[in-house]
Amino acid sequence: MPSGSDRPVEPPCPETRRTPCVRATLGPRQRLRRSADFREAYDQDRRRHGKLMVLFLRTAPDASLRLGVVASKRVGNAVERARAKRRLREAFRRLRGALAPSEPVDVVLVARRPLLAAPWTDVTGELRRLARRAGLLPPPPPAQ
């Protein structure tokens, strides 16, 4: 990973020797946008707390594993809040394919201040743990 960046290093393209610019993002239909949806997630009070983030679940007829991301001013200035939200969106995007909720849900992730300094593996690991505790991931296989 380049220093100061959350983006993993991608191997350069053999023909051009340049790093490809691949944009794998969450489209508008995969994101929560309306404040009413966020409020509904908070009101349902289905949350899991971690050191780096808080995960809220929203159950509704229109839920389809969409993501909403929040970073309050407690996280930092505008640049730090934007970075925290980017990190949460990317972690969720990478985990989204493995999620298998038993009911239709939407997810709201709320950033906490330590998220900014945490290593990437801690961010993804905590999101995986919170998702497992929330029932979005199957339990890990028993150790033998």
Structure description:
The chain starts with 34 loop residues before the first helix and ends in an 11-residue tail after the last helix. A four-stranded mixed β-sheet has the order 1-2-4-3, sandwiched between helices. The mean pLDDT is 86. It is α+β, with helices and mostly antiparallel strands. The chain has a single domain (28-133), classed as Ribosomal Protein S5, domain 2, CATH 3.30.230.10. It contains three helices and four strands; from the N terminus they run αβββαβα.
Salient structural properties:
alpha+beta; 4-stranded mixed beta sheet; Ribosomal Protein S5, domain 2; 144 residues
Give a quick precis of the structure.
The chain is α+β, with helices and mostly antiparallel strands and 144 residues long.
**Can you name the CATH architecture?**
2-Layer Sandwich
What is the string of helix and strand elements? HEEEHEH
Helix-residue proportion: 25-40%
Give me the count of strands.
4
Q: How many domains make up the coordinates? A: 1
- Quickly count the helices: 3
Note poorly predicted spans: none
Question: Order of strands across the widest beta sheet?
Answer: 1-2-4-3
Structural class: alpha+beta
CATH class: Alpha Beta
CATH topology assignment: Ribosomal Protein S5, domain 2
Distance between the termini: 34 Å
Tell me the layout of helices and strands.
Blueprint: H1 35-44, E1 47-49, E2 53-59, E3 67-70, H2 78-95, E4 105-111, H3 120-133
Parallel strand pairs: 3-4
Antiparallel strand pairs: 1-2, 2-4
Helix pairs in contact: 2-3
